[in-house]
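thread: overnight batch results

M.L. [08:02]
morning all. the overnight job finished for the chain we discussed friday. pasting input first so we're all looking at the same thing
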Amino acid sequence: MSEYIFDSCGIQNLGVLSNEYHFHHIEGISFNQPNISLNSSWNPNAAIVANQSIIGSAISDFFITTNNSIFISNGQQGQVLLLDSANSGNVTDTRNTSINSSSLFVGQGNQVYFDSFSSVTGGVSQIGWNSSTHPTLIISLCQQCFDIFVDSDENLFCSISARHQVLFRSLQQPSTHLMIAAGTGSKGSTATTLSQPKGIFVDTSIGDLFVADCDNNRVQLFHHESLVAQTVVANRSSNVTFTLDCPSHIVLDSNKLLFIVDSNNGRVVRQTSNGFTCIVGCGGTQVTYPSRIAFDSVENLFVLDQSAHRLWKFDLITWKSAGTTNGSLGWITTGNMSVARYGHTATILSNGTVLVTSGYNGVCLSSAELYNPLTGSWTTGTMSVVRSAHTATSLSNGNVLFAGGDNCGSFLSSAELYQ
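M.L. [08:03]
and the structure it wrote out:
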């Protein structure tokens, strides 16, 4: 029989570390798990869903349900807000929490779980959004829960950064004690230890746990009922080389590929079959310090920017395939340019449009056209000089520098700037 010892937080320590918890998959999840083709992208020109006037300056977490309800914390006012995602983020309902909560999760039936460490009776509290206006403490903790995740079997997971651990407890058996899901309670960088863990995600199909291990600049995978992790991505990972700087949140898509908030690098990265690639904050976007992400039911990407006190929405740019329905790589026709040309340039601008300039069509051209990928349409303009075989360079401020080429008579030394 194992020896049970209870520390000051009521956490169950075993003679041999164990994270055995009952897991049997229950159909239905409360969040949107994207199923996006690898060649999809998001419009870099984001829309503001909510700003500081709505969510305050102490914003920490948000959650989008499968019916696209947006729950978001306003720590400055001690509230959880319900936003209308279809109407510019207008507030449709509120609940008072009286505290600055660091984490938020919405379960089936709009059961809202939030960190209530800052209250007199600290821990994790719950509000039945459809039935109650007053929170109820469901788990007592002596340290703050940075992130909450409730799996499909109603196990509530809590990442405690200060303790360097992820703990869990069954909500179906409220009399049970907290158990260890990951970490030893001591700061470290081994396969069994963590250092300031932040975001967590549980694969609801098999019970695997993903942990954003902030201070170790890595994402760890703990297979179900294992306390020994596999490093999925890190600066010096044996299988993937990718530089992270304090990953703070993670989402697993339905193809079991990760989306990672790389906070200190100011970006969101995506796992593909060839490794990882940047999708938001890759230069020229509005996000300054992303902390959390979520998807709506049509796979638009929402990013919480703690530094700017804003919730951003990046629309999915849909790529359809001729003769297919699964979004695999293929071709369809779109709107035609107004002028046939070759020897031209095509440059993606920071707002997602494509600028095509000059080239040759029997004569050298000065015309330019702007393509909108959302509508498939073109608008026209004119450069100051006819040129072909020139260069186009995107600058860090979003401008594009066009230089050189020829004018069908001589080589050019001139340059012009598109702003």
